[in-house]
Amino acid sequence: MLWYTGRRLLQLIPVFFGATFLIYFMVFALPGDPIAALFGEKQPSPAVIEAIRAQYNLDKPFIVQYLLYIGGLFTGDLGTTFSGRPVIDELVRAFPITFRLAMLALLFESIAGIVVGLYAGLRKGKIFDNSALVVSLLLISVPTFVIGFVLQYVFGIQLALFRTTVSSQAPWSELVLPAIVLASVSFAYIVRLTRASVAENMSADFVRTATAKGLTRRRVVGVHILRNSLVPVITYLGVDIGSLMVGAIVTEGIFNIQGVGGTVYRAIQLGEGPTVVSFVAVMVIIFMLANLLVDLLYAVLDPRIRYAK
Amino acid sequence: MPSNTTPGLSPDHYVAPLDETPLKAVDAVDETEKPRSSWNDAWDAMKTRPLFWISAVLILFVIVVALFPQLFTSTSPTSGASLPDSNGPAESGHPMGFTLQGLDVYARVVYGTRASLTVGLLATVLVTLVGIVIGSLAGYYGGWLDALVSRLGDIFFAIPTVLGAIVLMSVLPSRTPLTVALVLSLFAWPQIARIMRGSVLGAKSSDYVMASAALGVSRFRILIRHVIPNAITPVIVVATVSLGTFIVAEATLSFLGIGLPGTVMSWGNDINAARASLRVAPMPLIWPAAALSVTVLSFLMMGDVVRDALDPKARARR
C-alpha cells in the first residue's frame, strides 16, 4: 500500500508539470497579448507596457517564464491579481468558503444519491425506479446555472425561504441552497451509478449465498449489497471533484459567494486572464491530489483490489 | 492412485449424450445469406423500444430546426423589436412572449438552435475522430507510441474539460462556434482515446486477427478492416452522450461570458441575457433553457438506448 502510494505520487510529478506547462503555454505563448487585454480599448504608452511585461517576466524567454512561475508555486508566490493583491492571500481568504460549500454539496449528493439509488436498484423496474431514472436524466440535461436561477427564483424570491445572495462571511446556513444547486448534477450521476451497481449485485452469487445462510434482508442489503455497490460510486467522486470546481465557479457566481469559484467568476467577467490562470492552476493541482486520494481510498474499500508491489 | 476414492462410484467418466446436428439442418443453412452483424442485433433490440423512437424523433426535429429555422417562424429574431413589448407576456403570434429588448422569444429559441447544435456536433465529431485515431494507433502498435500518447493523455486528462476551456477561452481573441468546439475537444479527447485504446487492446488478441495475419493480410489492413470495427462500439456510446454534455458546456461558457460572442444567437447567450430581469420576467430565461434541456435529454436517452442495445449482457438482462 505504501509502495503503491509512493509510486502514484511519482507518477503525479510529470502530469503536474505537464498540466501546469499546458495552462501556462495556453495563456502566455498563444497569439493574443494578455497585457493588451488588460487595458482594453485604451492602450497605454510603450514604456508602461514594457514595465508590466518585466513585472510578469514576459520579457524573458518562454521556458524561463514557466520555470520562474513554477518556482513561485513552490515558494508560495502565486503572483498578484490585477488589483495588486497577492493571489496566495486571495486563496487563503476564499478557500475555506469554497471548502465548506463543496463539503456540504458532497454530503448532500452522496447521502441523497446513495439512498435514492439503493431504493431504485432494489426495486428495479418499479415505479420508484423509473421515476428516479427520469428525474436523474432531467437533472443531468438541465445546466447547473439554470437550476441555480430557478431555485434562487422559487426559494429565494417567491417563497423567501433563503437569502438570494450569500454574505461575505458565508455561514453554513446560507450555503445550504447553493450547495443543493452545486450537488444537483452529481446527485443524478450518483443515483444512476448506485442503481446500476445495486441492480447488478442483486443477482450476484455472494448475495444469494448470504440470503441462503438465513441472514436478514437488512443485513444482506446493508452489508453485502451496499458495500460492494459503493466501489464505483467512490471512483466517481474522484472525477466529480473536477465538476464540483466548475460548478463552484457557476454557483458562486449566481449566489455571489466570495469563494474561489466566485473570484474566478469575477476575474472572467473583468477579463483578468492571469488571475483566472493562477486560480485555475491551483484548482487543477487540488483536482489531481483529490484524484490520488480517491484512488487510494478505492484500494482500501475493495478487498479484491490489491495493488501489485 | 489416491486411496480416498468413494467406493461404489464408477471410475469411468460420465459422458452426456451428444446430440449431433442432423445433416438436414446443416444443409438447410443458406450460405448466400449475409452474416448477421452485431449492428443488426443492436438495431433489432433498439427498434422495439419506445425510448429510441422518442429520442430519434426529437433529435431529427432539432436537426431540422437548426438547418431550416425559417420554416418554423416568420418573425425575425433580430429586428422588429418594439420597446413597449419589453419582457411582455405571450400574445397571438408571439407564443413565448418577448425578451428585454422586445424581441420575439420563440423566434430566438428557433434561431438559437443552430449555434448550440453546431458546437455540440463539431466537438463530438472532432473528439471522436481524434480519439479513435490516437487510441487505436496507441493500442494497436504499442511501444513508445503508446507510452507517449498515454502520458500526453494523462496530462490533458488532469485538467477538467470545462476548467481548461475557461482558461483558454478567457484569453482567446476570437470566439466562434468553431473555436469553442476546438477548445472543448482539446480537453475532451483523452477520454475517447483511452476507451478506444482499451477496446483495441482487447480486440487485437482475438482469433480472427490472428487468422487474418496468418492469411497474410498486412498489419495496417487488419487494423482498419478488423480491429477498429470490432472495437468501436464503446466509443459510439460515449460519443452520443458527450454530444449532450458539449451542448451544456457551450451554454456554461456562454453564461460565463466567454463562450460565443453576444452577436451570435445561442441558447446560452439568451439565458445569460435574460437573467438580469429574472425577477420580473422569468419566461425569456425558461424557454431557451427548456429547449436546451430537451435537446440534451434526447441525446442522453439515445446514448442510454444505444448502450443497452450494443451491450449483449444488458440485452440478456432485460
Topology summary:
The complex is a heterodimer of chains A (309) and B (318).
Chain A: H1 2-28, H2 34-39, H3 46-55, H4 62-74, H5 87-122, H6 127-141, H7 144-158, H8 176-202, H9 205-212, H10 217-254, H11 260-270, H12 273-301
Chain B: H1 23-28, H2 38-47, H3 50-67, H4 105-141, H5 143-157, H6 161-171, H7 177-204, H8 207-214, H9 219-231, H10 233-256, H11 267-274, H12 283-310, H13 312-317
Helix pairs in contact in B: 2-12, 3-4, 3-12, 4-5, 4-7, 4-10, 4-12, 5-7, 6-7, 7-9, 7-10, 8-9, 10-11, 10-12, 11-12
User: Could you tell me the strand content of chain B as a percent range?
Assistant: under 5%
- In which range does the helix fraction of chain B lie? 55-70%
Mean pLDDT of chain A: 80
Tell the overall outline of chain A: globular
- Structural class of chain B, please? mainly alpha
What is the number of helices of chain B?
13
How many β-strands of chain A, per DSSP?
Answer: 0
Largest sheet of chain A: none
Write the CATH architecture name of chain B: Orthogonal Bundle
Query: Helical residue percent of chain A?
Result: over 70%
Topology pattern of chain A, helix = H, strand = E = HHHHHHHHHHHH
- The portion of residues forming beta strands of chain A comes to under 5%
CATH superfamily descriptor of chain B? MetI-like
| Euclidean distance between termini CA atoms of chain A | 8 Å
Q: Please name the CATH topology of chain B.
A: MetI-like fold
Mean pLDDT of chain B: 81
The overall number of domains of chain B is 1
Low-confidence stretches of chain A: none
Order of helices and strands of chain B: HHHHHHHHHHHHH
Largest sheet of chain B: none
Low-confidence parts of chain B lasting 5 or more residues at pLDDT below 50? none
